[in-house]
UniProtKB/TrEMBL annotation:
Domain of life: Eukaryota
Organism expressing this protein natively: Sphaerodactylus townsendi
Classification of source organism: Eukaryota, Metazoa, Chordata, Craniata, Vertebrata
Protein name, as recorded: Uncharacterized protein
Length: 445
């Protein structure tokens, strides 16, 4: 996938230190390129997602939850790891099976790089990874981890990041051809089934009531894949843009007995997960400036969200332009807009990859509560209301203040490429990248 940095699709666990009283367990489930409109609980008519429906009905469903970026986010560090350490389309896929028994993956994916590897901790155990087997492997790994922690009465953090809803979609035999939505729906069904298995594993280990399960997605749908991509529902555009469809995500918090079932319209973000989970675990925060908030007041019904503002970064942020848009309360101002190739093919030309960067002065201003689709610019109204002009002034100030405080780190992408660093199951082989190929079981695990 062009233009996207290191990304981790991982399944890992970090055993937390036990203290008195014991902190809760956390299961954080990340979908990939899954849009605001993709789940049955968010209105999709033909998605089949019974486990996520159960979480939505028995947990807290967010309607204003934002990813930190319209493309994928950085990786983390774990005690145990199983997964593909980057996007599974970042390796040739045209001869691989995505749906059994023999439906090849749609498209070609990235060429002239190694086939996607499956890592178990620091070892490549299979290359290329077998997509139809991947879901079951992740589930088994997660089930074993939960059971092991349960037996030892040890609090745990499990991060379960699924590839299924990302191009090229795939599923095992059990889920292939099982939904009216086609390949995307089948892949989503297998993702949903893994959520069901995780919930069952928590039950079986007796930790159901002491575990927060949180589900969300990393960015909006890749509509360039047409019906094989996800859906942002009523929101504008998708992946790669700073319109709502790029960053506003489904989000579900599930903790029977602690998080009351319901729907919240409060503002929240993936940026808030670290401070929230650290607070729940009684863990100290890292000694850095964080742009997240503890969401405990929303989760436990004691108050409103501490987050009042959301800043929208473009896929490739730079210090000269700063953030592209700002949400403050119900209002959103776009200072810059730009299309994205990820967001092509829908009838809305604003989303397209060739739609250039435009600076808006005054900004485009929308009321996201009355107009979540961003159709009606409040500054186009014949009679400008004084409160609208006051909002524009406030938005300008918030953007300027935020941009001024933001310190940009060194670009990882800017460091360049070194093909010798591509993961290879046969490190000494000489005809890279094609020689990096090992069937499952050919390598010690
Ligand atoms: Ca993604």
């Amino acid at each position: 996938m062009p233009g996207v940095g290191l990304r981790a699709w991982l399944l890992g666990g970090l055993a937390l230190l036990a203290a008195a009283p014991p902190p809760p367990n956390v299961v954080l489930i990340f979908a990939d390129d899954l849009g605001f409109g993709d789940l049955a609980s968010y209105g999709h008519p033909t998605s089949v997602t019974p486990a996520l429906d159960k979480m939505a009905a028995g947990g807290l469903r967010f309607t204003s939850f934002y990813s930190s970026s319209p493309v994928c986010s950085p990786s983390r560090e774990f005690d145990h790891y199983l997964g593909v350490p980057y996007s599974h389309d970042q390796g040739p896929c045209q001869n691989l099976t995505c749906f059994p028994p023999n439906t090849p993956c749609f498209g070609t994916c990235d060429q002239d790089v190694v086939l996607a590897p499956l890592f178990w901790n620091l070892s490549v155990v299979e290359q290329p990874v077998s997509f139809p087997d991947l879901g079951a492997r992740y589930v088994t790994f997660a089930e074993d981890f939960i059971a092991s922690c349960g037996r030892r009465n040890q609090p745990f953090f499990l991060y379960y990041a699924s590839h299924h809803s990302h191009y090229p979609q795939f599923a095992s035999q059990e889920y292939t051809g099982q939904t009216p939505r086609g390949p995307f729906g089948d892949a989503l069904l297998e993702l949903d089934s893994s959520v069901g298995h995780l919930l069952q594993a928590l039950q079986d280990s007796g930790v159901y009531d002491s575990t927060l399960v949180f589900f969300t997605s990393d960015n909006g749908p890749e509509t360039m894949r047409m019906s094989r991509g996800g859906s942002s529902g009523l929101l504008k555009c998708g992946k790669g843009t700073t319109y709502e469809g790029g960053v506003r995500e489904p989000a579900l918090a599930y903790w029977p007995g602690r998080v009351a079932p319901g729907v919240t319209h409060e503002l929240a973000s993936t940026l808030d997960l670290l401070p929230t989970l650290a607070a729940l675990a009684g863990a100290p925060l890292p000694n850095v400036t964080l742009d997240g908030f503890d969401l405990s007041p929303i989760l436990f019904g004691s108050g409103t969200s501490p987050r009042k503002t959301m800043f929208y970064y473009p896929p490739a942020p730079n210090s000269q332009l700063g953030v592209f848009a700002v949400r403050y309360g119900k209002y959103k101002a776009h200072f810059y807009t730009q299309g994205a190739f990820h967001s092509g093919t829908t009838p809305d030309h604003d989303c397209y990859g060739l739609t250039p960067l435009v600076f808006h002065d005054p900004p485009l201003l929308y009321d996201l509560e009355s107009d979540p689709a961003e159709n009606y610019n409040l500054l186009d109204e014949a009679q400008l209301r004084p409160e609208v002009l006051a909002v524009v002034k406030e938005m300008r100030l918030r953007k300027a203040t935020f941009d001024q405080q933001m310190k940009f780190g060194e670009s990882e992408m800017g460091r360049g490429k070194d093909p010798s660093l591509e993961p290879c199951c046969s490190p000494q082989c000489t005809s890279r990248p094609s020689c990096c190929r090992c069937p499952s079981g050919s390598h010690p695990t």
